[in-house]
Amino acid sequence: MGNNGPFLLGLMLTSKDRVPAGTTSGEYVDLGAGDWDKQGRPSEVRLDRILQIRPDSIRREGAVLDKARFETVASGLRRRHGWT
Predict the structure, then answer these.
(1) The pTM of the whole model exceeds 0.85
(2) 42-58 pLDDT, tens per residue?
(3) What is the dihedral of CA 54, 57, 58, 59, to 10 degrees?
(4) Which CATH number fits domain 2-81: 3.50.50.60, 2.40.50.840, 2.30.30.110, 2.40.100.10?
C-alpha cells in the first residue's frame, strides 16, 4: 500500500481462482495463502484497479505483504501498467 496525498493506495484481494495454475495473467497475481484470509485460502491480487482510500473509511481487513510477495505484486503492476 502506498499513498497519494491524503489517500491510501491499495489493491483488491480475492480467494476466487482467476488464474489457472501454470498460467499467467495481466490482471491478477497469485499470492498463495496468508494471514489476510482467516480460512487460509490461496489468494490473488487484482492489478487493473488501484484503489484510493481515505484512512478513516476502511471497513475491511487489510494486510501488509512480506517483501517477496510485495515484489511479485510490484512487478505485476509494472508489467500491467507499463511502469518502470
Answers:
(1) no
(2) 999 999 999 998 988 88
(3) -160
(4) 2.30.30.110
